[in-house]
Amino acid sequence: MKENATLDDLDRFIRDIWVECCGHLSAFEIDGVSYEREPDDDFGWGEPAKSTNHTLKQVLTTGMIFNYEYDFGSTTEIMVKVLDHYSAQKQNEKVVILSRNNPPQFACSICGNQKATWINAFRIYDEDLFWCEECVNKLEEGELEAYENDVCFLPITNSPRMGVCGYEGSDIYPEQFEPDIPK
Known about the structure:
The chain is α+β, with helices and mostly antiparallel strands. It is built from 3 helices and 8 strands, in the order H-E-E-E-H-E-E-E-E-H-E.
């Protein structure tokens, strides 16, 4: 990210690539200070949050670890580490993806044979979590009656928000990594 990008830009990027599902609130916790997009001046306890309009160079330093939270009900927490800063060729974008983890791969929890493409959000802590297309079709055809009332399928995604709330993946970034930098 460019050093003059703001925390708001970073929030938008994290939402776009990993967490956005329903427009929930979010916040950064950096060196004991909370930063929010719309900070509340009438905060009942502790220090009120600061705005996310601060630039990265104003609040971050090399080696720093800070926290990001999205959705204060079914919260997704992300720890971010500032690895380093460097001079790069001039770019128009505030964020350039240099690398990314590959999407997770799971075997179907029901048949154990196929690659899972769905997660059952109602059984997030159970053994029958991952489903392949074939087993979902069997359920829809009435062949897996034991699960009829216990399913809410969401797609398997490349996100820490997989299976939470209504998260279905990014509309902007593909699941499989494609470098932004021209070859």
